[in-house]
Design brief:
With 427 residues, the chain is an all-alpha fold. It contains 21 helices and two strands. The chain has a two-stranded antiparallel sheet with strand order 1-2.
Length: 427
C-alpha cells in the first residue's frame, strides 16, 4: 500500500510539472537561459521515460527536441545511442511505412549520425560506420560515397567490429573495375583479416573469390609492390600470396627484400626457409634454419626441420643430432624420438638383412617403444611400427647360433652403421 501511495504522489508531481511546463512552453523564450534549461530538463525526462517504456514514437519527438536544441548537459546519458535505437525501431516497424515516411526516417538517421559526430567526436568512427551501413542498406547510396564513409570510419577507429570490414570488402569486390583499384583494396583488407583471425575460414574464402584463380591474385599483389617497391607491407602481401599459391620461386624476391629491411623478423626467415625447401634449394634452406636457431634457440621446430632436411640427404648422424636438440627444447614432444626410430629403420632397410641389420631393426623397435611410452600424438603409430617389425629383429635362433644370451650387449657396427655408435641389449 505504501508503494502505491509513493507512485501516486510521483505521478501527480510529474503530471503537474508537465502541465505547468506545457503552459510555459507556449511563451517559451530562447533568450531566457533558465527557461531553456527547464525546457531541456522536461523534454529529456519525457524522452527518457518514453524510451525506457519502449514508447518510441513519443520518444522520437522529445528526443529531437533535446538534440536539436542543445544535448550537451545530457551526453552522459547517451542520447544519440538512444535516438539511434528509436530510429532503427521505427524504420523496421510495420506501423510506419509510406515511401515518404521511410525516406524521412532514413534522412533523419543519417542526420543523427552527423550531429552525434559533432557532439561526441571520440565516437565519430562508430557513428560513421553506422552511417555507411544506413547509406548502403537503407538509402541505396552511390557505392563510392559509401566506401569513402567506411574508409574514414576505420581510419578513426581501428577497433570497429570486423563485420563492418567485411561489408566494405564486399563493396570493394562488387564495384571493382580495372581503374579504381578496389580489387586490390579488398585483397589487402581480407589479407589483414586473415592475419588477425587465422582460424576464420571466411576470410580465406573471400580472398579466393576475389579472382578467377590464385595466379591473378599473385599478379595483382606483385604489381602493387612493384609500383611501390619500398613498401614492406605490400612486399609481405605479395610473398604471402605467392606462398599460398605455391609459387615459391616468386616469393623469394619479396622475402629477400623484407629480410634485408628487417633481418631479425622471424616470420620472414620461416617463410623463405619453407620456399627454399620446396624448391629443393637445400643449402639455402639449411642456412635459413640455422639463422632461425640463432634468433629463437628454444624453438623446437627449427631443429626438427633441419633434421628432416639432413634425413632426406641421407646424413643420418647430423639428422639425429638435431632431433636430440629438438627433444631438449621440448622434452614432452614424442615426434623427435619417433623420427629417430625411423632413421634406424631406414638405415637397416637400405643396408641388407644380415644379423647386424636385424640388430639395427631391434634398435629401431626399442626406440619406437620409448616413443610409444611417452603417450603422445605418435604413440599409436609407434606401436604399429613395433608390430610391423616383429619379424625383422633377431629371433631366438639368431642368438643361439652365435652363442648369445639374454642380457648380452651387442655393439652396432659395420659400414652402414658407423654413424650410430650404439649398443643394444638382447631381450
Amino acid at each position: 500500500m505504501k508503494t502505491v501511495k509513493i507512485v501516486s504522489v510521483l505521478l501527480f508531481i510529474f503530471l503537474f510539472v508537465g502541465n505547468a511546463f506545457a503552459r510555459e512552453v507556449t511563451a517559451f523564450r530562447f533568450d531566457n537561459p533558465d527557461s531553456l534549461k527547464r525546457y531541456l530538463q522536461v523534454e529529456f525526462s519525457l524522452f527518457y521515460e518514453d524510451y525506457k517504456n519502449k514508447q518510441f514514437e513519443d520518444a522520437y519527438t522529445h528526443g529531437w527536441n533535446v538534440i536539436n536544441t542543445d544535448p550537451t548537459d545530457y551526453l552522459k546519458y547517451r542520447p544519440f545511442k538512444k535516438m539511434e535505437t528509436v530510429l532503427w525501431f521505427l524504420h523496421d516497424s510495420v506501423k510506419v511505412h509510406t515511401d515518404e515516411q521511410l525516406k524521412a526516417l532514413v534522412d533523419t538517421t543519417l542526420y543523427l549520425y552527423d550531429v552525434a559526430s559533432k557532439y561526441v567526436p571520440e565516437k565519430k568512427g562508430y557513428y560513421l560506420v553506422k552511417k555507411a551501413f544506413v547509406m548502403e542498406n537503407w538509402a541505396k547510396a552511390d557505392p563510392d560515397s559509401v566506401i569513402a564513409t567506411y574508409e574514414e570510419a576505420f581510419k578513426l577507429d581501428d577497433t570497429l567490429p570486423n563485420g563492418y570490414r567485411d561489408m566494405l570488402g564486399l563493396l570493394y569486390a562488387r564495384n571493382a573495375t580495372e581503374d579504381n583499384g578496389y580489387k586490390l583494396k579488398a585483397l589487402e583488407l581480407y589479407s589483414k583479416l586473415s592475419e588477425t583471425e587465422p582460424d576464420n575460414a571466411l576470410w580465406i574464402s573471400r580472398i579466393e573469390n576475389l579472382a578467377e584463380n590464385m595466379d591473378e591474385l599473385v599478379d595483382i599483389t606483385g604489381k602493387s609492390w612493384k609500383l611501390d617497391p619500398e613498401n614492406t607491407e605490400k612486399a609481405w602481401k605479395y610473398a604471402s600470396m605467392a606462398i599460398r599459391a605455391k609459387e615459391y620461386e616468386l616469393a623469394l624476391e619479396p622475402l629477400k627484400f623484407l629480410i634485408e629491411k628487417a633481418p631479425n623478423v622471424v616470420n620472414y626467415h620461416k617463410q623463405i626457409a619453407t620456399a627454399y625447401q620446396k624448391l629443393d634449394m637445400t643449402n639455402d634452406a639449411i642456412k635459413e634454419y640455422k639463422t632461425l636457431i640463432e634468433l629463437e634457440p628454444d624453438n623446437r621446430d627449427n631443429y626438427f626441420n633441419l633434421a628432416i632436411i639432413y634425413q632426406e640427404m641421407g646424413q643420418y648422424s647430423v639428422a639425429r643430432s638435431y632431433l636430440h636438440k629438438a627433444a631438449k627444447a621440448d622434452p614432452n614432444w614424442d615426434y623427435p624420438l619417433y623420427l629417430e626410430a625411423q632413421l634406424y629403420e631406414s638405415a637397416a632397410r637400405n643396408c641388407g638383412f644380415e644379423f647386424m641389420d636385424k640388430v639395427v631393426y631391434l634398435l629401431a623397435v626399442n626406440t619406437y617403444k620409448r616413443a610409444a611410452a611417452m603417450k603422445g600424438p605418435h604413440a599409436t603409430v609407434a606401436k604399429e611400427r613395433v608390430k610391423a617389425l616383429a619379424n625383422s629383429v633377431p629371433q631366438k635362433e639368431d642368438y643361439f647360433f652365435r652363442k648369445m644370451k639374454s642380457g648380452d650387449k651387442i655393439k652396432i657396427e659395420g659400414g652402414c652403421y658407423d654413424w650410430i655408435g650404439r649398443s643394444v641389449t638382447i631381450p
